[in-house]
């Protein structure tokens, strides 16, 4: 069988199981206990309560909309599980109300919003208390549960804090689905969750103090969570066309979902940003989204996952920003100009044979590019580097193309 034919057979086999084994990710009490300062979000973007307030994650996974326990859109969500508890008299709902200091009105939807407002205030207070440091939010990608994400989050944090002691890191865990055998179609499914999670994360970001130094690092699909947290990501993602609510929130300029323009010192680094080249187009050159002071994209033309094993970055959920270095620079610069600060796209080297492994730990081994990315995100580096496979626009508009 020739190479082309074998590739097509592999692709067909992958697509057949594209959604068969994808599973939602929930965060039980023991995991939240291990990371007490982390932010945990369900697939709708709602916040988990801190450890000490029990969450029936088993019920989240088993409640069946067909028997009327919850609405279909509330399956595997905190809201759906607590709605069920409220209707059946389970004690968990009352414990959550007490923790949030919300006096139940009997109107579940109203009480749920009050609870989420209270949990957001707790997170905002925690982050604002870190003033004087670099507040680093770290967002993992899809196909990560708690244990899987920590395989790179733990060594990543250790390396960062050794090199940049002024940093205070906060992990952001979300439901990007889990499915090692689910095939490439899971990218599209995960990209359906991302905007919802991002828009709710925005409700934390837009309450942060203006003088807080905010730094965000994302890996893979964490990019479109943050893109939608910062502004209008509706241009590139499926799901918006079927939801008036999502569309209205996408580029909101005021209200609870207002884009977080309060953040004046914002740096964002996206390693292998698994999103379309047009991801920032809806920002309307900064009028419908906050443009980072520095935006650093780390790309690789041979990333194993984002290239879909070399078949195409455009199928099964578009991930082309991760693999097309020059185009990623050109699209992002056009979408964010003229408000763009420093924009840098760093091309990580492709192995001589095969593909680049997708995990953060593998990119950390590319020392030169990795240190350049972290230096721009967390260090004193400014301006464009004099050499290297990098596309860069400095804050003064000067452009340096890769050599």
Please write out the topology:
Elements: H1 3-16, H2 29-34, E1 39-40, H3 57-62, H4 78-88, H5 91-100, H6 108-128, E2 134-139, H7 146-163, E3 167-173, H8 186-205, E4 213-219, H9 222-230, H10 244-250, E5 265-271, E6 294-299, H11 325-336, E7 342-347, H12 360-363, H13 367-378, E8 390-393, E9 399-400
Parallel strand pairs: 1-3, 2-3, 2-4, 4-5, 5-6, 6-7
Antiparallel strand pairs: 7-8, 8-9
Write up this protein.
- By secondary structure, the protein is α/β, with parallel strands linked by helices.
- It folds into 2 domains: about 5-35 and about 135-400, Rossmann fold; about 50-130, no CATH class.
- It has helices at about 5-15, 30-35, 55-60, 80-90, 90-100, 110-130, 145-165, 185-205, 220-230, 245-250, 325-335, 360-365, 365-380, and strands at about 40, 135-140, 165-175, 215-220, 265-270, 295-300, 340-345, 390-395, 400.
- Strand 8 (about 390-395) and strand 9 form a beta hairpin.
- Helix 4 (about 80-90) crosses helix 5.
- It is globular.
- The two termini are about 40 Å apart.
